[in-house]
Amino acid sequence: MMKKILLLGVCIVAFSCSEYQKVLKKNDIKPKYDMAIKFYDEGMETGKKTKLKKSIRLLEQILPQYRGKPQGERIAYIFSDAHYQLEDYFGASYQFERFAKAYPKSQKVEEAYYKGAKSYYYISPVYSKDQIDTYKAIEKFQQYISLYPDGQYIGEANELVGELRDKLDRKAFEIAQQYYHIEDYKSAIAAMANYIEDRPGAKYMEDAYFYKLKAAYVLSINSYKHLVEDRLEDAQSYVEDYEKYYPEGSHIEEVKEISEDINKRLITKNQA
């Protein structure tokens, strides 16, 4: 009995494949339309990617012929979503954008805007790489948020924008921090000052205040004598900024030690 069931399954699969190949090679668009819809529905129901791939291949052949027809909207959406489900996010972002432009009154247009933006979210690379696609993802989410402020996906859209911005904040901070690590302290101070000014509320703001004051401190104690006092005073002002905003910050003990040393050096300097 088990052998018969397996044999039947093999026969069904073989028949299905042969039917697919026949329809794929024919010029008639209606059988391709019907089979593409069937494969998409089955792929969504079962999670089988081969079904979705077959649906896409059939739809590629008939999409132009259905533009402007009642079925055009449906297959354009399915074509976009099949790419999305297959994690072809470059293809999905492009197809969803085309869908939204072609069918602005569709019931699926909000979903198209959202999934198009989320496709860029998935494309966005790790923070250490070029962030062009991260900026693009934020732009697309902002477009969705602007169009659908009470939309179905608004909560998740805002969360993902926050996550993408954190990624940009981290990259910007580590670029600024790199100046400190290569001992270019003047550039480190400037870079951290720009970071603080440009990214209010950023995740790495406390560290930016800390490395700004630490860079200023190291620069001051390694300066020519005639520059030391002014630079110590600058460093002390940055210490005061850190203590003001982060009185219980993770670097507070080291900041207090730096502050004590600055004050000692200033007293010694004034007594000389």
TrEMBL record:
Pfam families: YfiO. Keywords: Cell outer membrane, Membrane, Signal. Residues 38-224 form the Outer membrane lipoprotein BamD-like domain. PROSITE patterns: PROKAR_LIPOPROTEIN (PS51257). It comes from the Bacteria. This is Outer membrane protein assembly factor BamD. The lineage of its organism: Bacteria, Pseudomonadati, Bacteroidota, Flavobacteriia, Flavobacteriales.
